[in-house]
Amino acid sequence: MKLDLNLLRVLVAIHESGSVTKAAQQLGMSQPAVSAALGRLRESLADPLFIRQADGMLPTPRADTLAGKARQVLDAIDHDILRPPEFDPQADDVEFVFCLSAIGEIVFLPTLLRHIREQAPRALVKSVSLAPEQLEEALGCGEVDLALGYFPDLKKAEFFQRRLFSHDFVCMVRSGHRIKGPRMTLNQFATTEQVFVKDGSRTQERVEAALAQKAVKRNVVLQTSHYLSIPIVIAESDLVVVLPRTVADVFSDLMDVRVVEPPVEIPRYDLKVYWHRRFGQDPKVKWLRERVIGIFAEQA
């Protein structure tokens, strides 16, 4: 026998109030609708359930038994099933895992950590770097909460994204470099020895495409897989490096280097926050995503 759970609410309301009219008011229903629901209950359960008397509705023994059990069922549904899950950012076991590239750690991590610790002081923040196929799996199984940065391979329908802000590219040289102006010429760019950072991210593809369109080749004498040594290398040599402006600005505050505009226009690219649709409404991921958007989307 199938029974509409809403009929159980009618049963409990009549049992508690002793009146069809009061039950209707309690449930926000019309009296005829409650009477009709009671009729369906009586038919389904083959029991009158309530006997009308001068002072109200008198429950039958079957109604007394059902009302007690129905309250337990409805309480479980209302409190354990229908109530939205909650997230406590100050809990001891909170862990936030981000996938960030080397550039992403420079751009996002210091600000992100400061804001998270203000609201979740006990949280453990983890930053990982993963190949595209590993990132897809990690987001899908919940090992990574959010990916921040430039991840053009996350194209499948199960991945959601939100633009935060965009990057452009600049060149960086030491402060005493022979290139003095605010912008490099094509000849200076082509003849000056350069560092090429091949860190596994997709950002340099945009640089290479822009240079290829102008038939410009770089005179690369040093290739490295990360940005960690770049400010020191540039400050102590006559080399040039092409890198995102935000990263160059950070380095120029730390070392004796300066920013120079490139000789060709390199298209900007968007940095985004990515998450898996499976965790779109997960309380922790939703809380974290809202914090990230609130912090960084203002820069858009």
UniProtKB/TrEMBL annotation:
GO molecular-function terms, A-Z: DNA binding; DNA-binding transcription factor activity
Residue ranges of domain HTH lysR-type in the record: 3-60
UniProtKB keywords: DNA-binding, Transcription, Transcription regulation
CDD domains: PBP2_DntR_NahR_LinR_like (cd08459)
Gene3D superfamilies: Periplasmic binding protein-like II, Winged helix-like DNA-binding domain superfamily/Winged helix DNA-binding domain
Presence of the UniProt keyword S-adenosyl-L-methionine in the record: no
Signal peptide: none
InterPro entries xrefs: LysR-type_TF (IPR050389), LysR_HTH_N (IPR000847), LysR_subst-bd (IPR005119), WH-like_DNA-bd_sf (IPR036388), WH_DNA-bd_sf (IPR036390)
UniProt entry tagged with the keyword DNA-binding: yes
Family per record: Belongs to the LysR transcriptional regulatory family.
The protein's name in its UniProt record: LysR family transcriptional regulator
Species for this entry: Paraburkholderia pallida
